[in-house]
Amino acid sequence: MAFNHLPAGVHDALAPLSVMPVTHSVPMAKNLRPDRSPTDSAPRPSPGALLDRLAAGPSRASRVTHTEHLPPRAGRHAVWPDRIRAEVVAAVQAAGIDHPWAHQARAAEHALDGESVVVATGTASGKSLAYLTPVLSALLDGSEAPNGRGATALYLAPTKALAADQCRAVKELSQPLGHSVRAAVHDGDTPFEEREWIRQYANYVLTNPDMLHRSVLPSHARWSSFLKSLKYVVVDECHTYRGVFGSHVAQVLRRLRRLCARYGASPVFLLASATAAEPAVAARRLTGLPVVEVADDASPRGELVFALWEPPLTELHGEKGAPVRRTATAEAADLLTDLTVQGVRSVVFVRSRRGAELISVIAQERLAEVDRSLARRVAAYRGGYLPEERRALEGALHSGELLGLAATNALELGVDVSGLDAVVIAGYPGTRASLWQQAGRAGRSGQGALAVMVARDDPLDTFLVHHPEALFDRPVESTVLDPDNPYVLAPHLCAAAEELPLTDEDLGLFGPAAAELLPQLEAAKLLRRRTRAWHWTRRERAADLTDIRGEGGRPVQVVEDGTGRLLGTVDAGAAHTTVHEGAVHLHQGRTYLVRSLDLEDSVALVEQAAPAYTTVARDTTSVSVLETDTEIPWGDGRLCYGSVEVTNQVVSFLRRRVITGEVLGETKLDLPPRTLRTRAVWWTVTEDQLDRARINPEILGGALHAAEHASIGMLPLFATCDRWDIGGVSVPLHPDTLLPTVFVYDGHPGGAGFAERAFRTAGDWLTATRQAIASCECEAGCPSCIQSPKCGNGNEPLHKRGAVRLLAVLLEGAPTKESETEADGTDPTDRTDPTGRTGDRAAETGQG
């Protein structure tokens, strides 16, 4: 496959490099061995020198818009609590760790005291050891019971890869303890013949929330001996449990606690999180238990140089003649190529599975031009691979066979890759917490590291590379989740009733909304009240009522036409936009075209091809207001929050050149519409406000549309969401409000908390939106400010200057926080939800 890179001389840094074949093996560092020196002794350039090499040449130097230097930090040691078994301390010392960091010892102390605790410290700060020492000590005590399993522990990870990696680490660490610790992974890849042994004999089971929901809890009687001895539940990477997925996991954990109580156990929860705002509050929301916070990171850190990188404008023009920047994908692929040629261990994090495949293919092609052996040292890692492919990649990563990787966040939360020399982040990952999690993968103990964030051509990324204070001077976000969402809670009440009949005493565990939902579930003939308890009435499994990742429906299988070979899967919710007829699908560096999508059988047939383009789906959306929960005057206009019904339909797709992003054409699609009941924030303006903003009827639609696009692009800065988690609609005259209206809604049934966060931060959010549009250099709008890649109306109409004036007039009427409190008589951070839920969620969900 050929790729049209920048002309010779404009590309970059390959010329000044000394091109030498890389023949040495570079194994990844182990988290449990923070003092381990790298096996490859080749001297590494300092992070600053490495950045200088990448930015060499006049064309590249101008791409670095900001460089942040984070100084090194010395570590602070402590001693293990004396209640940790001496054998466990000896095993830790045998692994090369003489003394714990202060936060590790403090977390272990809380665990031993029977207090649930969340450790919220930086990447590679030894969080695993903080929870493993009390867990291993308890398992060692339990091994002395007559049945050899007097204590058990359950480990939950958001990905299979992370559970597998942690299992390897536990087995390595506990080797001196012999058979006292019997760790095993129980997930969808575990052979059935091994599962019975795990249920009967394993005392440390590593799994994921999906398996807990679908397998362990529904068949709890078979796990009774494990559950009645359950001492600890470890929830790793708990900051990832946000939005709809986090809300589902919160209810799964409540079901687990209920069954444990049935068997006489009351496990302590040990949570590990990336640095986050109010981690104890989020952990309490997730588990339903009081949680102690340990957030003072005492581990050492080398120097980190963090660069913000903006790709250059090309000579090409996009829709409506808008200027087009070089894609973040192409730019990141070039950086990965340069780093690999220098023998620098690196990973590129990219938002999409397709992006990971593209970056890998481009880098491999460029490396083959330098040295064919180098092309084999780069690969892609993403979700959707078959289990054997995933395990092979993880093995190559640990062995050092791979030197560079293009990965989705399946790796961010997957295998242990701490100790890299450089991390490239292709596009803002959606939250500051995730940004620092990815950047933290770079750096060995005591050595410096480089992180580079490459901006995509969209409003938020463009804003961030020119406003670095929004990244480096603000705290990370709080976690947004809403376990009381009725769309989330209802199926878990059914699942709980099937596990054990629900009593009135159980309802407090599931939150105040549970009692309101039970009569509705009875009316739907899902539950029936008999004497003092609610019972599941159906033959099918209640756990199958919901997909806890909020994806809805079974995954679509991607099958190669002609051979029938299964290439992988795509989430049901993404099928319309990613594997529609004519879509380009990438798998393991190979390109396929989708011949057909069968929604009834959930199968997409593909054939191998080599198109010189990628595809982007477009959709159209309409919104109707079901109920307005809260309404605040903004001058003559209104800011509202409530329930809406959204009708969405994918109508076409664009073909874009791989490297440049140039639009080659648009093809219509015939896919069915989908409806969604969710939560939304919306604002209206009056004729007087339009007059003050000099918005006449001819440009009204374009001004509203432009403001809608930009506000969607900017919301991830204020809520822990992805741009693709939310949607929007703008209407010059909406039938429900009878005014010009802009809606922004959650893309999940029942809402995910993002629109509520937008409502509560609307002043700051829309101010940043206006600033992002006004500061863009383009004349009439471009992808960096008001154009959207998924706009079903072909980015028509748009009016950049009208949007700036409209937002300015709207913001003139924005209330102060004090007047906002007076408007409805309550503190906006302590407001009661109109469904009857208590209002402390708002205080938990973010910074002002």
What fraction of the residues are assigned to beta strands by DSSP?
A: 15-25%
SS-derived structural category: alpha/beta
Distance between the termini: 49 Å
Q: Quick one: how many beta strands?
A: 30
The order of strands across the largest sheet is: 1-9-16-15-12-14-13
Instruction: Please give the largest β-sheet.
Output: 7 strands, mixed
Shape: globular
Q: For the residues shown, what is the average pLDDT?
A: 85
What integer value in Å does the Rg equal? 27 Å
Low-confidence stretches: 1-41, 818-848
| SS summary, helix count | 30
Helix content: 25-40%
Domain Helicase ATP-binding: 108-294
Biased composition (Basic and acidic residues): 828-848
GO molecular function, one term: helicase activity
Domain Helicase C-terminal: 335-487
Task: Furnish the topology, listing elements before pairings.
Elements: H1 47-54, H2 58-61, E1 64-70, H3 86-94, H4 102-112, E2 117-120, H5 127-142, E3 152-156, H6 160-173, E4 183-185, H7 192-201, E5 204-207, H8 209-216, H9 224-227, E6 230-235, H10 243-262, E7 268-273, H11 279-287, E8 292-294, E9 304-309, E10 313-317, E11 323-325, H12 328-341, E12 346-350, H13 353-370, H14 372-375, E13 378-381, H15 387-399, E14 404-407, H16 409-412, E15 422-426, H17 432-439, E16 449-454, H18 459-466, H19 469-472, H20 486-499, E17 502-503, H21 507-510, H22 514-523, E18 527-530, E19 533-536, E20 556-560, E21 566-570, H23 575-578, E22 584-587, E23 590-598, E24 603-608, E25 613-634, E26 637-657, E27 663-668, E28 674-684, H24 687-692, H25 697-714, E29 726-731, E30 741-746, H26 754-760, H27 762-775, H28 800-812, H29 817-824, H30 841-844
Parallel strand pairs: 2-7, 2-8, 3-5, 3-6, 4-5, 6-7, 9-16, 12-14, 12-15, 13-14, 15-16, 20-24
Antiparallel strand pairs: 1-9, 10-11, 17-19, 18-19, 20-21, 22-23, 23-24, 25-26, 26-27, 26-28, 28-30, 29-30
